[in-house]
Amino acid sequence: MPDLLSGNAVIGQSGGPTAVINQSLAGVVEGLRTGLVASGKVGRIFGMRHGVRGLVKPGADGLLDLSQIDKARLEAVARTPSAALGSTRDKPDEAYCEKILAGCRRNDIRYFFYIGGNDSADTCRIVSEKAHAAGYELRCFHVPKTIDNDLLENDHTPGFPSAARYVSLALMGDALDNASLGGIKINVIMGRNAGFLAAAASLARGRAPDGAAPQDRPPPHLIYLPEVPFSTDAFLADVEAVYAKLGRCQIAVSEGIRDSAGAEIGPKLMRGVGEVDAHGNVQLSGSGALGDGLADLVKTALTPKGGKAPRVRADTFGYIQRCWPHPSPVDTEEARAVGRYAAELAAGGETSASVIILRTSNPPDAYRSECGRAKLASVARRTRHVPAEFIAGSNDVSAAFHDYCRPLVGDLPKLERL
After folding, report:
1. Under CATH, what is the fold of the domain 7-159+327-379?
2. 3 — pLDDT class (breaks 50, 70, 90)
3. What is the pTM of this model?
4. Which residues, other chains included, contact 310 with Cβ-Cβ below 8 Å and sequence gap of 6+?
5. Architecture of domain 160-324+388-408
6. Residues contacting residue 163 through CB under 8 Å, at least 6 positions apart
7. Which of 279, 274, 316, 277 is nearest to 294 (CA)?
8. pLDDT at 282
9. Are the beta carbons of 412 and 331 closer than 8 angstroms?
10. Residues acting as catalytic residues
11. How far apart are CA 338 and CA 329, in angstroms?
12. Runs of H (alpha helix) within 92-195
């Protein structure tokens, strides 16, 4: 029999919400009920209000008792986008994690589950290490979540397939709008350090990239990722080549594009001082500065002397990508599975882990995946980037990326024009 602790369990949600983060919450609850609760090892299951803030807050206001929530309501919550418990952008340091450990002691918590990205994995790591050093027995499990798809050890992360589906559908519709009226359309897509989500715009084409020149591709004609140094001169030349042939050009660009020195393009194009987030980064998702700046560059460069400026428009997708209530079916299933698997690891006597998704088969065979485990330190505070084999030149993705991403998003509509 595994060495199991007796006490309570706590679950929290952290970082940007997704369309399926509550599936992971429901998966942990479901897994605990059939395992540690049924065996009598876990008495109560708590939900942290706004992540670890709820645990460090004295009193009952910061914790929600999930022990008695009925199955029908849990399923309804699971199908609902965004973090049902509330989330937080807090990035706990050593001192903050001491408070988290104190909250665990105060509430007799022996099983700690945190749903989030690499900072959440790091929180689990620090709390686990502090508990061990203090002689307090605590099991800590990180459940993956991020639309950026930037967690190491994972084939992909829950939240990404649904956001990729949204981007694909949005670019499909936007391409038809662009074809109807002509002009140049710039779409700025989330991804500060990793370009997976902007790369997913390529699925809007309906076929795998074949190495064609930008003006001979289906839209989006141009895709720019933060992994590839961005040159303003090359960008303008790319746009001009497409526009000169087609009278239109659709562009997908990651919010995190950088120049050859690694400096972000967005802040450089801001007309004033940009807002700074809790981690000291200039806000990109909440600002249209990158899109507006690129649109101004294009309009200026492509306006003939004494002639009419081209029609140029820019949209910044921002937060709307995260919680669109039409998730990918694959994402729905896998988000539930990683939560359930975390509870199963706890019931199996594991002391700490980060749950990961592993792809076991791909078309032309059926797509399949399974859950696995990694050490917290292997995921914590580290960033996965779009690999070189997924990138084609300076303004496109490869067929390998299409093969990787296409099975994740679900069925896409077939569209037709006269």
Report:
1. Rossmann fold (3.40.50)
2. confident
3. 0.94
4. 183, 184, 243, 298, 299, 302, 303
5. 3-Layer(aba) Sandwich (3.40)
6. 18, 19, 147, 190, 197, 200, 321, 322, 324
7. 316
8. 54
9. no
10. 148
11. 15
12. 94-106, 118-134, 160-181
